[in-house]
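Crash report, auto-generated. Payload:
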Amino acid sequence: MRRYFPVVALVLFAFALPPLAAATKTAFLLTQATMSAYYALASLGLCALMGYAGQISLGQAGFFAIGGYASSFISTRNLDLLASTPFVRLLDLAGLLVRGTDSYGAPLLSPSPWVSCLCAVLLAAGVAALIGTPVLRLKGHYLAMATLGFGIVIEKIVRGTKALGGADGISGVPAFTILPGLEVTGGRSARSANFTIAWLVLALGYLFLVNLFGSRSGRALRALHDGAEAADAMGVDTARYKLKVFILGAVYAAVAGILLTHYNGSIGPGEANAMKSVRYVAIVAIGGMDNLGGTLVAGLALNFLSLRGVFGSLDDGVFGAVLVFVILLAPEGRLDLFRGKARRTISGGASRGAQS
Amino acid sequence: MRSELFVQYLISGLIYGSIYAAIAIGFNIIYNATGIINFAQGEFAMLGGMIASSLAPSMPLAVAVAVAVALTAAAGIAIERVFLRRVARGGVLKMIVMTIGLSIVIREAALLAWGESIRTLPFFSGNEVSSVSFLGAHFSPQIFWVAGAIALISAGLSLFFKFTLVGKAMRGCAASRDGASLCGIRPDGMVTLAFGMSAGIGAMAGCVVAPLTQTHYAIGSELAIKGFTVAAFGGLGNSVAAVVAGLFMGMLESFSIILIPEAYKDVVTILVLLAVLFLKPSGLFGSRTAGALKEY
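Recovered output after restart:
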């Protein structure tokens, strides 16, 4: 049951922190805590790929951006002028469009964020499935470079495409109404509710991965990490498992990107930057590579401090330096920074099967 | 197309191709000695250009360049001795993450040391306005320095690996670490030497192109991915192929402007990288038999 502890903690924090913050007049911290939760969600997806399947990806920010950009692009389309066309009317009748007015009072008729969210997740999963097959045939450095290249292509595309706002990105992204009265959006009045939403989503994402790794598929993934050939010999379809976890990681990043974009109301090409991808990798490595709990803590803590501006202009440098020293301190096995003493094993990899 | 425009694109491709080739050669030296890809490779070119640009006002240019190359080589050696040697047993994933971390630290340190300003070096011969004319196109004589330096480096390396004892010892280590140590070669020393050489070559390339392309604390990561593209394109470990592939990539980039918007210029390189990795990871000049024995 210990492995469910972080889920319980996340749910408790999701409800307990907002009143606590209000009581101590630190409610302003909730904004960054909300954003950190979404970044941590993207890191968890990468942890599944890196720590459990043993495949590196330097393109996580690419999927984050695909999610955020696709959802904001679709949900900011104004179909009002096309309102009389049969297709738009059909969409409207199906309840897939929302009405509103822009800041000049002109009528807006846009796809509902539910639609844009679904499309964005499907797009990210589709892209992952498409590039996953050739990319995952590669190993080690080649895999790292190929995923890095993918991430850079996404960044150059969103930066160079006028329809996606070029260097400015997309702003004016509408609120994402999950339930009537409960929406993912910035603004003071929604701050507490959004913190709770974000941390609950994170808890849900964590719970899913914990259960996945405890299942048959999880054991197959672990076998993949320890030795792909051996896993192959035991009848694990390694290529299919790798692809599945790659898609899963992409979907985590996309969901994080979508929710954060609707929360912020905007997205820019900086989210697709290679340095962002490196940050996700850094968080997984600092968390201990195959340690979901560690990734969670590292993702929440480092992103929160970074968003609060604690590291000042040394932001990237701090991530780099922490990364270097964490790897330096744990050159031979995994890092035990966030793992209980009792769980430490004598000789690293060989006894990996003992835990879980 | 007008012929002078054609020549102009050709020259620009030659300049960028040369620096990509130099970075690729740096990748190759380290790959041959250790089997790893050093993601911090581009930072060496940045360090070379930046150090030389700081020293140039207070000493002769040749001395400034020599000191920059020596200091960068020392930095390369330090990186290997202090950081990478200890991690070597941790597996490929850790090595990748380590060199990525180091590249960030070097870049941020450069930002602290030199700020965000764009820097340059004086031209090695002549000045900003001196030019050579060829088929109606005008270009700076600096490109002879660039082309000459790359030609010298690649020829020198070929001779070094073929004819000198140390060069042969390095190749021995690449072929078999254990075998080499049985012959009395110290593999650790060879790896250190490889990092020193690789860093020095990167710095040299950073210096010769600095007068033309300027330099900046953040140029490293872009150079690294393009250099890797070239190295993979030519076949990892093959330095002569890297020069050919580098020139090809440089030309491809500079001529791609004719067909596609400038904003997507870098996408071309990376698509080539992805195509090479997906279709023929042993590279254009890599042999299939040797490729079958390697892991990609």
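Post-recovery validation: The mean pLDDT of chain B is 85.
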